[in-house]
Design goal:
Layout: E1 6-11, E2 26-27, E3 30-31, H1 32-41, E4 48-54, H2 60-69, E5 72-76, H3 81-91, E6 96-101, H4 109-122, E7 126-128, E8 145-148, H5 149-158, H6 162-167, H7 170-174, E9 181-183, H8 204-214, H9 223-235
Parallel strand pairs: 1-4, 1-6, 4-5, 7-9
Antiparallel strand pairs: 2-3, 6-8, 7-8
Helix pairs in contact: 1-2, 3-5
Length: about 240
């Protein structure tokens, strides 16, 4: 049986309000956006990866890195992220969309594959492992949200509130009584013992934490290694 064409769409822009320029900050010799794109592309169940960024000239450095890595690019409205996803999905002929936020330099290909498998097998409206929920203590930073391109197209047509346009899947989370949302099970080796361990990037303090955890590691460092390193740092 043919699997749906599965495409990761990475949303990124340089002009972040809380930490401007964070996508180009260095982490072990490579900019954050390169970590995100290279690590995402290693997921085995993906058919394609698209960088969805804005039309503003300020985002040219992101486009240049994506081109160097052979990643497809879609550019659209800065504030209409949902619209960007819908158009990027059309461009790439996606049937299943894997939503990746570019503030996750440690996004892990095995964790992404796990979310895709849950979506393929259980067929919910949304599968996820990017946050803790339903008793699963996922760190923030390794995972993804997975949903159908047809559902994204429907939301693009019908979800008009500003937060719906900015946050893509928030319409589903706000109306959980209408949608089936399923959390992937967190393996013990990735469970830090607390919910929502913060391993994503919103502030300069987050960047300092990531540099500590990734010190001396390659861009292919595993999520298992990062959690083990976090335990070492916390115990010190």
């Amino acid at each position: 049986m043919r699997r749906p064409r599965t495409v990761a769409i990475v949303q990124a822009r340089i002009n972040s309000q809380r930490f401007p320029g964070k996508m180009m900050q260095d982490l072990e010799g490579a900019p954050i956006i390169e970590w995100v794109l290279r690590r995402t592309a290693k997921a085995r169940l993906l058919d394609d990866v698209v960088l969805a960024t804005t039309e503003h000239p300020i985002d040219e450095p992101l486009v240049a890195i994506a081109r160097r890595l052979g990643i497809r690019i879609f550019r659209g409205d800065e504030k209409d992220v949902l619209g960007r996803y819908a158009r990027a999905a059309e461009m790439s002929a996606a049937e299943t969309i894997v939503r990746i936020c570019a503030d996750r330099p440690l996004v892990d290909p095995d964790v992404v594959d796990l979310a895709i498998r849950v979506f393929d097998e259980l067929k919910p409206d949304l599968a996820f492992n990017h946050i803790s929920e339903n008793g699963e203590r996922w760190p923030r930073g390794f995972g993804a949200e997975v949903l159908s391109a047809s559902l994204v197209a429907w939301m693009d047509q019908h979800a008009k509130a500003p937060d719906d346009r900015e946050h893509v899947t928030i319409h589903l989370w706000k109306h959980r009584d209408r949608y089936r949302i399923v959390a992937a099970k967190c393996p013990p080796e990735l469970d830090p013992g607390i919910p929502d361990l913060k391993l994503d990037l919103d502030t300069f303090e987050d960047l300092q934490r990531l540099r500590t955890l990734c010190g001396g590691a390659s861009i292919d460092v595993s999520a298992v290694h990062i959690v083990a390193r976090w335990r070492e740092v916390m115990a010190a």
